[in-house]
Design brief:
By secondary structure, this protein is mostly beta strands. It folds into seven domains: 16-43 and 161-240, no CATH class; 54-154, Ribbon (Umud Fragment, subunit A); 269-359, Sandwich (Immunoglobulin-like); 364-454, Sandwich (Immunoglobulin-like); 460-551, Immunoglobulins (Immunoglobulin-like, Sandwich), CATH 2.60.40; 557-647, Immunoglobulin-like; 654-811, no CATH class. The protein is 11% helix and 40% strand. It holds the Pfam family Big_7. This is Signal peptidase I. Residues 196-208 have a biased composition (Gly residues).
Length: 820
């Protein structure tokens, strides 16, 4: 039984202490501090715990995703499910290549995928950014999809990482004060809250040392405080290191304005109706245009003389119907090209494919165009416009291309003036065609249709022997050539032995004509294989059959997929593996080319067997690759070696190449078009061509059909030449068919060099502006398909410090579009 000390009075109750003047302050300070620390630690817990489920966190470092995501927020992301499509419209975490970064070092970024390109890449943008990101995104670059936002918890780490110490110091003082108030500032269970040595107080005669009548001892309180501070320090350190690789683009727009409405990243759709092959008098030209995001601002309808790059605008209606009247009597008779250009309210534009027509307000002769390439029997139609009651003798003539030596193809044609051209009676080659109408002493000629290719010879094709026994994913390849119109495609096919049906494995349009095919999709047994080549004229050829090849997937197989000839930054390494006994793991290894010093880059236990390899961790040079499959029994199977792939992380390299249409026809090289080659750093102009300082310099742009270089129809190539010197910009594969088969076109051009700043880094941009056609104008083609050009620089160009450029190819960045 406890007794009161003599001369003392009972202490106040706990309730009385709390509701005293001093008690209220301590109570509120302790309550607020504990609430603050509870929220802080809860947010930190939300940011850390999902890691147990495979999610990973990233601290946001800039405001390009505002107002929903702000600097200092932690975004938690999960890996993409390989079986699911890329989440267009969602925020993703992805690896940004070194060439797109101001530091020249690959980083992790978080942006929203706003649209998908036709080539399988994706366009990304920050919600508050005025523009989309300049570099398209591939699925392989995506490291996760944003799933959870934890607001503000990464701010201390962000301040520490960025050296912003004043707010970090203020936060630290506030937090330490909160820890002290929460742990040490509470009132005692009894008495007036004033503690005494030995744990007693004015209201307690207890003799238990080191306690406060059942409260935690001082060392326990100190341990609690240290634990809280340690947890908070861990959050700060993690936020400043582990998560700090994420960053947003620095260029932002007014967040409130740009986020208030749905962003319009897609150009409008527009089409132009053909007025017919021949027009006269006044005709109505009509276009249709739509844009579901921001609406149509206007549609311009234009015309130009055939082959001209000078367009005249007929009208620019701002609302539907988008049409206007064209008084054709105001222009000379002849061939014309029409187009419509739609502009939406966000400023994006789209241009229609050219529509051809002939203006004929006086008598004229028009010969139908049979196309660039013909074979067999072809029909040629002649039209007499505004012939009146006159009597005409009509014939069709031909000449070897450019020779201007005309011979009769069809004579004394009667209405409707159709000529049948048996091209099999002609030697393969290019011909010019024209129609002639004679009335009395008056002879009228049609426009010449130039460079029509006659090709009645099938291409040659050879299947590369795939081997006697096939397992897993195997490579099938063929070689093909065509001396006239060029190879259009090669299809690789298989047939089960004893059946009559051939099935396509793949179709290749470009060199090399090859593909990888998963033989596990076939039943085990014997098969025949062949290649079928088709040229641009439609002639086909079949290779010798590789017969009775065995597909046997009853044993393990593994193969290394080709990561590419040049490897830069972080690249995906992928293997294909199959084993009836199961797969424990697949190891992907590399070694300096020609050595046996193999290093495991990753070990994957579940498919798909792919991983990311940071090539900046090894020296530049040639490397071999292989994959090793491990079965549950311990048996290993090693793939064939993929040899001599070059790691190249040179600081100076080709960063981008872009083509801009001037005032001419979209998809066709003509005067006013601009081609720009951008390096990753500033270069010495004198290394581009001797004695050059970057000022305007006359050069010759040479366009060669891909067949001249063994690259096929869809790989026409551009390079630059200069009288009395060389231009060391390398070559540009347009990935398009801009020149007719086996033809060369040259342009007078002007080359200039300027310094541009990209993401804070000064770079040299070499621009080439096309002038008039110097030779081969009739060999130009208009390309309607979109593609990404590939520039192969040379090592002859050096930086200001004398460092040679990488020869690694640079692929055109940005959304997939028609060039020129």
């Amino acid at each position: 039984m406890k007794r009161e000390r003599p001369g003392s009075s009972p202490g106040p109750s706990r309730t009385g202490a709390i509701f005293s003047v001093d008690g209220w302050g301590l109570f509120l300070a302790s309550l607020a501090s504990r609430l603050y620390l509870g929220i802080l630690l809860s947010l930190a817990l939300f940011a850390v715990v999902p890691a147990a489920f495979g999610w990973h966190g990233t601290v946001v470092q800039s405001g390009s995703m505002e107002p929903h995501i702000s600097p200092g927020d932690v975004v938690l992301a999960s890996d993409l499910d390989p079986s699911q499509p890329v989440p267009v419209g969602r925020v993703v975490q992805f690896r940004s290549p070194a060439s797109a970064e101001p530091s020249g070092v690959e980083k992790t970024r978080l942006h929203r995928i706003v649209t998908a390109n036709d080539d399988g890449t994706y366009v990304t943008a920050g919600d508050a950014n005025a523009d989309v990101d300049s570099t398209p995104l591939t699925r392989e670059q995506i490291t996760g999809q944003a799933r959870l936002l934890v607001p503000g918890v990464g701010l201390p780490g962000l301040w520490l990482n960025s050296g912003n110490f004043p707010p970090l110091a203020l936060w630290s003082v506030i937090t330490l004060a909160a820890v002290a108030a929460a742990v040490f500032g509470g009132v005692s269970p009894r008495g007036n809250g004033r503690e005494y040595p030995g744990g007693g107080d004015t209201g307690d005669g207890g003799d238990s040392p080191g306690t406060d009548d059942g409260g935690p001892p001082p060392f326990a309180k100190a341990g609690t405080a240290v634990g809280i501070i340690a947890a908070l320090c861990t959050v700060v350190v993690l936020g400043a290191s582990v998560f700090s690789a994420a960053a947003f683009t620095a260029r932002t727009a007014n967040a409130a304005n740009s986020f208030a409405t749905a962003a319009d990243w897609s150009p409008p759709s527009v089409s132009l109706s053909s007025p017919g092959p021949t027009v006269r008098g006044t005709v109505v030209l009509s276009a249709e245009a739509t844009d579901p995001e921001s609406g149509i601002r206007n549609v311009a309808i234009q015309y130009a003389a055939a082959g001209s790059s000078t367009w005249a605008t007929l009208c620019t209606p701002v609302s539907a119907p988008y049409s206007c009247a064209w008084n054709t009597t105001a222009v000379p008779d002849g061939q014309y090209t029409l187009r419509a250009i739609a502009t939406d309210n966000s400023g994006l534009t789209s241009t229609t494919q050219p529509v051809s027509t002939a203006v004929s307000n006086t008598f004229s002769v028009v010969l139908s165009d049979p196309g660039e390439t013909v074979r067999g029997t072809t029909s040629l139609a002649v039209a007499l416009n505004n012939a009146g009651a006159g009597l005409y003798t009509v014939r069709v003539e031909y000449s070897a291309a450019g020779a201007n030596k005309w011979n009769t193809l069809c004579l004394n044609l009667l209405s409707p003036y159709n000529c049948t051209w048996n091209t099999a009676a002609f030697t393969n080659g290019s011909y010019d065609l024209r129609a002639v109408a004679v009335s009395g002493l008056t002879t009228t000629y049609s426009a010449i249709i130039a460079d029509v290719m006659v090709d009645n010879t099938a291409p040659s094709v050879t299947l590369t022997d795939p081997g006697a026994t096939l397992r897993g994913t195997s490579t099938f390849a063929a070689t093909a050539s065509d001396a006239d119109s060029g190879v259009a495609q090669v299809q690789l096919q298989y047939q089960r032995t004893g059946t009559s049906t051939w099935t396509a494995m793949c179709t290749a349009a470009d060199v090399p004509y090859s593909c990888r095919f998963d033989t596990t999709t076939l039943a085990n047994g014997t098969y025949n294989f062949r290649a079928v080549a088709t040229d641009a004229a439609g002639n086909t050829a079949v290779s010798t059959v590789a017969s009775t090849r065995t597909v046997d997937n009853t044993v393990a197989s593994v193969s290394m997929e080709d990561p590419g000839e040049y490897l830069t930054g972080t690249v995906p390494l992928t293997a294909s593996a199959n084993s009836p006994a199961g797969i424990s793991s697949v190891r992907i290894q590399s070694a300096p080319a020609g050595t046996a010093t193999w290093t495991t880059r990753c070990t994957i236990t579940t498919g798909p067997y792919t991983c990311a390899w940071n090539t900046t961790t090894v020296a530049d040079g040639l490397y071999d690759f292989r994959a090793i499959l491990l079965e549950p029994t311990g048996r290993e199977t090693t793939s064939a070696t993929l040899a001599s792939r070059r790691v190249d992380n040179s600081p100076l390299r080709g960063a981008d190449v872009q083509a801009v249409n001037g005032t001419g026809t979209a998809g066709r090289l003509d005067a006013g078009d601009v081609l720009t080659f951008t390096y990753s750093q500033q270069v010495n102009p004198g290394s581009v061509t001797s004695g050059w300082n970057g000022a305007a310099l006359p050069v010759t742009l040479r366009l060669r059909d891909g067949n001249l270089l063994g690259l096929g129809n869809g790989a026409d190539t551009i390079d630059l030449q200069r009288t009395g010197g060389t231009v060391n910009l390398g070559t540009l594969n347009t990935k398009g068919n801009f020149a007719k088969s086996r033809k060369t076109v040259t342009f007078n051009a002007t080359m200039t060099a300027t310094t541009v700043t990209v993401n804070g880094i000064p770079r040299t941009a070499v621009s080439v502006t096309l002038g008039s056609v110097a030779s081969g104008a009739s060999s130009l083609r208009t390309v309607s398909t979109a593609a990404s050009m590939v520039w192969s620089p040379t090592a002859a160009v050096t930086s200001l410090a004398g460092v040679p450029s990488s020869t690694a190819p640079a692929t055109e960045t940005g959304a997939l579009d028609r060039d020129f």
